[in-house]
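Practice problem: predict the structure.
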Amino acid sequence: MATVNPDGSIYTKLGWWRGVRGAFSIAGRRLDRSAPPLRVSLHTASYPTIGFIPSGLTFPTIGCWRVTASQGVGRLTFVVLVTKQVVAKG
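Answer:
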């Protein structure tokens, strides 16, 4: 589930589970064409240093994106095809 912003970017929420303490970061870039970088908002203020942490990811454009979350020496990477659904008006 995602939301298309007025500027055309696509926003979605994604939850993460941290098994260890340490700085947590997320980065992403489009693989199939040049584009501005992924915008990330981490909501760490009201969550403990271990366990669940919510994030907001804003993809500036549609396309194929690689997203990497890092914490200490650990890293998780996934690739996602970001698209927009066309709704027919009738």
